[in-house]
Amino acid sequence: MKTALAFFAFFLITTSLFSQSFEELRGHELPFVENWDEGSFEFNGWQISEDSAWVINSDVGNLEPSAAFRAEMITEDSVYSSSLSSNLLIANHFEVGEIYLDFDIKLDAFEATGDEIIFFEFSRDSGDTWQIIGVSTNKYGSIEFAEGFHHYNITKFVRGYNFQLRFTATGQNASDIDNWFVDNIHVYRSCTAPKNLEGTYTWNNDGWGAKISWKAPGVWGYGKWLHWDNTVYRGGAGISEGGTWSLAQRWDAGQLTNWHGMDWTDVPIDKISIVLNDGGFDSLILKIWSGPNAETLLYQQIINYPAPGDIMEVTLDSSIYFDVNKELWIGYTLVNQPVGWLPAGYDTGPAVAGYGDMFSTDGGLSWKRMSDSGTNHNWYIHALTSQSVAYSPISGFNLYRQEVNVEDDYVLYAMVPYVVDQKLYEYLDLAPDVSEGETYNYKVTALWEINDDSCESDPAMNIDLTEDYVTILVTEIEDREEQKIILYPNPAVSRLNISSDTPLENIVIFNTFGQVVFEQKIHKEKTFSVNTEALRTGIYLVKIKTNKEIISRRVVVSQ
User: Fold this and answer.
1) Are residues 252 and 376 both part of a single domain?
2) CA separation for the pair 494, 558 (Å, rounded)
3) Tens digits of residue pLDDT in 289-347
4) Which of 324, 332, 411, 498 is found 20 to 30 A from 377 (Cα to Cα)?
5) Domain that holds residue 265
6) How far, in Å, are 289, 297, 344 from residue 269 at the CA level?
7) How far apart, in Å, are the Cα atoms of 304 and each of 203, 265, 314, 329, 344?
């Protein structure tokens, strides 16, 4: 008698194990953009089903044209399937960064049934097997482009492989819909940018000029977890006849010598975390195996009375070392699961078939893929090393500068090396490399590198997340000990007081964009008070002219 898996949720899929990338060299390098402006599928190598239900619609799009599935081309009101498949997309040389898929869809529906579906899929083996990325249906009727934007992180499925995309319209009754539209397909790689970009005018013993500071991306500890699931718990599964069974995630021999840039050679596993959907079984045994088909048991630990519903993190009784040149399996055995119970927690998918979704119902003699049993998920299983790892794929930061009203664009100005465990960075751009009275814009990017692959991030955003650059107005400051002018209080709240031992003639206040926000001529007074209530919180430069000299001070306004 065959034992089947029962599931908390069901998804229609067609998939099998895949592990090989394409050997062909043809295809499109990333980033890849398809907006159908050429008016044909052939231009970028798209392939359509023999039913010819997919066409280029020159009247509809975001903006038009778009690719359209015409339901009227399906001649019978029965189960149907019609696909639009991409040419090869090249990602087999990528080792760093995240790979994303964006696109827009639109649906014109006559009925709201939930039975008419469009699957978003990928294949890593020339289309022999397809994995589901996402899905949309006519459950709520028509969908406009404004609400049909889709964004997926597909990194763990395609990085290091060449792959194809597919849009498959399928369902029970094509007459319930009119058209599916697909537009603005964008496949691209992105690396995490620095953050908290700041720029200030600075004066110190080294000189005067601009100080640019930023925070490195959060890479500390990245790579210390082992898991195939996407960390989002979705539901649970169990075997339909009840009994004892095992589940696991697995890694190929040699795969962990470069796991997201980290070499796990001689790195132990210290903790395992799982999520249980419900209980009912007699006991749970955490296990680590090695070799093909999990042939060698390296470790096991009985967990009594585990609580379902929450992430359960277990510290192992001893650190477990393993051979990275052999397969690694991590999972657990459920002892005497009752009929109808669904204890094994899984993620939202899609499954990394043959890696994140393995299970056995015969004591580990043979293993199967959960995705072959009618669902599209990975088991929620994480392994952790507590060993300190001096690791980061960031090699450094590129700093770009633009002199306002002089240069039309930014130029690469400096490179700042990455220092392991250093989070805050700054760069001083001092005279004579900056000039008094000039305004400069600065941008900072991160450079990620693993082996022969590199990726430059987008520029860092400022603290307010409004711009990806900072602007600094440079005004020379004389030696502070020689100054006879006092500004107080600093920070100023409602008023800024200025006192001088020589008569004041003019006061000008600039914001960080070099814009004049206050200007006042003064007739021989030695003190003056500025109302700052109308100024926004921030840093300002105050230029003060006396009958002897012109000096500048930096003040902070805090409302």
Assistant:
1) yes
2) 8
3) 999 999 999 999 999 888 887 789 899 999 999 999 999 999 999 999 999 999 999 99
4) 324
5) 225-384
6) 12, 14, 21
7) 64, 32, 12, 22, 16
The residues of the chain scoring below 70 in pLDDT are: 1-26, 204-206, 219-223, 261, 386-392, 476-483, 512-513
Residue 2 is assigned to a structural domain of this protein: no
DSSP secondary structure letter of residue 520:
E
How many Cβ atoms sit within 10 Å of the Cβ of residue 206? 9
pTM score > 0.70 for this model?
A: no
Residue type, 448: W
- Asked whether residue 3 is assigned to any structural domain, the reply reads no
Tell me: do 48 and 185 sit in the same domain. Answer: yes
Q: Could you report the per-residue pLDDT of 372-393, keeping only the tens digit for each?
A: 887 889 999 999 886 655 456 8
Beta bridge partners, 425, equal 214
Coil, strand, or helix at residue 175?
helix
CA dihedral over 203, 206, 212, 215, signed as positive or negative:
negative
Q: Which of 473, 504, 523 is the last residue in one of the domains?
A: 473
> What is the distance between the alpha carbons of residues 203 and 209, in angstroms, rounded to a whole number?
7
Boundary-marking domain end, from 438, 473, 508: 473
Strands (E) across 8-140 are located at: 28-29, 32-34, 47-48, 54-57, 66-70, 80-85, 89-90, 98-109, 117-123, 131-137
Residue 249 counted as domain residue: yes
Question: For residue 155, what is the enclosing H or E element?
Answer: helix 155-158
First to last CA, the chain: 75
Q: What are the tokens at 320?
A: 């477990």
185 and 331 belong to one structural domain: no
DSSP, residue by residue, 332-399: EEEEEEPTT---EEEES----TTTS-EEESSTTSS-EEGGGGT----B-EEEE--S-----SEEEEEE
DSSP code, position 259 = B
- Name the one residue in this structure whose structure tokens are 């069901």: 10
Residue 182 to residue 189: CA distance in whole angstroms: 21
Nearest to 486 by CA among 437, 529, 523: 529
Distance, in Å, from the CA atom of 354 to the CA atom of 124, rounded to the nearest integer, reads 13
Q: What is the distance between the alpha carbons of residues 386 and 422, in angstroms, rounded to a whole number? A: 20
Long-range contacts formed by 36-39: CB under 8 A, 24+ apart: 36/61, 36/65, 36/66, 36/67, 36/183, 37/65, 39/65
CA atoms within 13 A on the CB side of 35: 7
What is the gyration radius of the CA atoms in the chain, in angstroms?
31
pLDDT value at position 478?
47
Strand partners, 7: 237
Q: What is the total count of domains within the chain? A: 4
The Cα 201–Cα 435 span in angstroms is 12
CB 414 within 8 A of CB 433: no
- Please report the sign of the dihedral spanned by the C-alpha atoms of residue 150, residue 153, residue 157, residue 163: positive
